[in-house]
Amino acid sequence: MEKEKCSERVWIGYHEQPCSRYAVRDGYCKQHHPDEVAKRNKISDEKWKAKMYNKPMSVAMRKIKALEKENMELRDQLQILKG
Ligand SMILES: [Zn+2]
Questions:
Q1: Distance 54 CA to ligand 1 centre (A)
Q2: CB 24 within 8 A of CB 30
Q3: For residue 62, which phi and psi values (nearest 5 degrees)?
């Protein structure tokens, strides 16, 4: 009996073809099992979020937002002092 192949289809250049690896779990190879794919997506998603969060522009935007808030608060206090 022939070993079961992974049921995922992959793109090789411009051609879509079945994954050539043997299925090890639920009809998928180790790399294409939905659990593994989800795990990888989650990791790359988190990496991407961290990268975005630490981008100079994001850092600057957060600083601007904080300063704008402080500015508003100081303006309110000034209004109170002025009466
Ligand atoms: Zn596969």
A1: 34
A2: yes
A3: -65, -40
